[in-house]
Amino acid sequence: MVTLTIDGKQVQASKAATILDAAMGAGITIPVLCHAKKLLPYGACRVCLVEVEQMKGRLIPACTTPVTEGMVVTTMSPEIKKVRKTVLEFLLVNHVVDCPVCDKGGECDLQDLTYEYEVTTNRFKDAKFNLETDERNPFIERNMNRCVLCGKCVRVCDEIVSYGSYSFINRGFDTKVATAYDRGLDCEFCGQCVSMCPVGALLPRPFKFKARPWQLKEVDTVCGYCGNGCTVTLGVLDNKVETIRFNDKIGVNDGNLCVRGRFGYSYINAEERLKRPLVRKNGRLEPATWSEAMEAVAAGFEKARAEKGLGILSGGRLTNEEYFYLGHLADKVLKTPHLDHSGGECYKGLSQGLAETLGIKASTGTFPQVEGCDAILAIRSDFYETHPVFGMVVNQAVKRHDAKLAIISDKKGKFTKLPGAKTLLTKPGTEVAILNAMAQVLLTEGLAVTEGVTGVEGLRAALADYAPQAVAAKTGVPAEAIEAAARAFAKGKNKAILMAYGLPYSAQSRELGVAAANLAILAGVFDGEKGGLYLCGEKANSQGAIDQWILPRPNGMGAQAMLQAAAEGNLSALYVIGEDPLLSYPDRAKVAAALDKIPFLVVQDLFMTDTAREADVILPAVSFAEKNGTFTNAERRVQRLRPGVKSPGEARSDLSIFALLAARMKDPLVFTGPEAVFAEIAQTVPEYAGLSFNAIGPEGVVWGGEHLATKTRNLVAVKGGEPLAARFQMVTGSALFHSGTLSVRSKGPMSALPEPYAEFCLEDAAELGLAEAQTVCLKGNGEELRLKVKVGKRMPRGVIFVPYHFGSAGVNRVYRGETSVTVEVSK
After folding, report:
1. Gyration radius from the chain CA atoms
2. pLDDT at residue 668 tops 80
3. In this predicted model, what pLDDT tens digit does every residue of 19-34 receive, in sequence order?
4. Closest by alpha carbon to 154, among 169, 167, 141, 140?
């Protein structure tokens, strides 16, 4: 720490701090335009000029000047004010003054500074810019007439997003920010540039002319899409979410969002939302009162209990309180052991794999730690697509701190493009073999950490068949690449292993979890100050579902077993909550047979889904934006949800619906709301012991601490899958712009990616005579898909990628939970 004086006030600051950092820490305001706390210091705008006693004779930028012991700083004087006013005049020479029609009005930094420094006239005269406004994409309006060349958009896209959409072109007064070849913007549409822009040069098009900022009610909550758990600030007007506001002052994502979190909110306001209960009468779904609907549900469930029993299938987007109450319903009220969530297979890497090896069922570190890691291993390139904001942390680790990144994947992706990244491009279904081979290298070369580890000799013997040379022949990854990746990973001081799980990644979930944990143990991942093993769920509260034990009870059936039993006539009722199995679960034929045969089906959801159309009773639920409660993200961070809008029509929260059902079935236990349920969680769920609902602050609370200690370090041998001997094979998974099937209900993600596709590599497309957007036929598992062609450089030869989000594609008619499917390709 160093001590300095700012405006007569003695201040202490880190040796690495700038004058601006020190001033901000002391509550002293220095104006800025080009500075942002998550970007590297830049010093472009010169608005932050200050005086330093030891540097008399010139003014220096506060945002780039490091503090020194004994430094004396003056942040405001007549000379400083005069210079800042001159800087503002220069900025306004060519800047158009169209504040009345600019959506940034009321929160424009340039507007505020102009007012503060009384720039009522301008001594400098020149023509105003008259550049064409770019409105060629559905998300971001680019009006470079308003640009002040602060460079924030350029820097955030490079430093954080690592996409590089923008750059400065031309020189002097003709300098401007532009895209490659000055074309329209075509990128990830994360909106980071919009949030950074201090003026109205970059604006969110969906919000244009909807409201002025002071008209909006702002509500901080947690994004309802993936397990990253990003804080979002809802901008609400007249009980409608009009925008997602930028907020880097609270939460753990530093204001970073992806296209789904920033632009995927319109489903909240959708007219198609279910607003009243529906009960099937004479073969038709008819509107009903809540009393009628609950009477029908209770009667159907009581009948099912007396016959062949009932099963409960939940999605991954309920709150912790709702999951806990659902578990109570299953155990105490409905008295069924058949309870599961999200497909029943995809999370087994976490719930079984880590439990067998580490004795825990959660990631061991927090997301920010990964930026400080010097070795990172990502399993599947899709990790950036499933968890983009966590992916941005990886971007910074590589670009700012020179972390060594390796990716084990059956396709290339965003991570592959990072500086120095090594992609072990393996055949689909052979990732476990690569992990086993890396573990074998550590053991045979004496690089493994084995102190306090059980099962070492058993694993050593089991890995005899996984020498890099043997694995290379099976996977197509050179033995030298496997060995180099293993050595580089072991060499790191702080290490992280990343893997995502979700419905399209069900195959070998447990085996991948075990193999990743084995490698983490042997590489000493849990011994560093930062990093750990991260298994991240596809849905917003996947971790909470596991924490609250939304899993099969002893002798209970999981999701797939329930569907099989229903199809065979061995189950009398299904209760489906926040999930659309007919659209999203693997093996649509199996799901359809189950729904066709089940005597009584209850669906609780936001929309009339394909599954809901088959129901006997439909119960209208609400979105995350209408709920009070908590989510637990993939780093174990428990965070508060707060309602921003009222529920549409008669829709109720899942918690309220569970309470209605429990009361109808004469449950003696009554919870009075989320706070009361959370108090019960804190008393009965060990990981949540001592937590208080109202004490959860803006940063949330990480149960288990920043580093979750492993209970065991037990190596378990697992076998890798065998690659398909097929000319063409189809793999499925997530696309960047979507999350599960919920995002297809929202205009933002659908504007970016409106339809499914089959992605081929350039060589295969040329061989087959396929062109971009041409229709192609894929035949596999006795089914046929007709999709538009996408041609790119990501896919290896013989592998075709089809995203699973779109019901119209019918992907789950072909995909039945395998790693990949043999397909025939024709026009």
Report:
1. 28
2. no
3. 999 999 999 999 999 9
4. 167
745: three-class secondary structure by DSSP: helix
Residue in this structure with the two tokens 């980071």, named with its chain if needed: 192
- State residue 249's pLDDT score: 87
Q: What is the CATH number of domain 729-826?
A: 2.40.40.20
What CATH code is assigned to 127-269?
A: 3.30.70.20
Give span(s): CATH 3.30.70.20, the chain: 127-269
CA 420 from centre of chain: 24
Give the tens place of pLDDT for each residue, 394-449. Answer: 999 999 999 999 999 999 999 999 999 999 999 999 999 999 999 999 999 999 99
CA distance 609 to 18: 54
How would CATH label the architecture of 2-76?
Answer: Roll (3.10)
Residues of the chain with CATH 2.40.40.20: 729-826
Beta carbons of 751 and 720 less than 8 angstroms apart = no
For 593-625, how does the pLDDT look when each residue is reduced to its tens digit (9 = 90+)? Answer: 999 999 999 999 999 999 999 999 999 999 999
Q: Residue 148: CA atoms inside 13 Å, Cβ hemisphere, count?
A: 27
Give the mean pLDDT of the chain.
Answer: 95
Q: Regarding the domain delimited by 278-344+544-702, which CATH topology (the fold level of the hierarchy) does it fall under? A: Rossmann fold (3.40.50)
Tell me what pLDDT residue 671 has. 77
Do the beta carbons of residue 574 and residue 330 sit within 8 Å?
no
CATH T-level fold of 348-537: Dimethylsulfoxide Reductase; domain 2 (3.40.228)
Q: How far is CA 539 from the centre of its chain?
A: 8
Confidence of residue 181 (pLDDT cuts 50, 70, 90): confident
CA separation for the pair 217, 111 (Å, rounded)? 22
* pLDDT of residue 87 exceeding 90: yes
In the chain, list all ranges with CATH 3.10.20.740: 2-76
Where does residue 647 fall: left (phi above 0), alpha (psi -120 to 50 degrees), or beta otherwise? beta
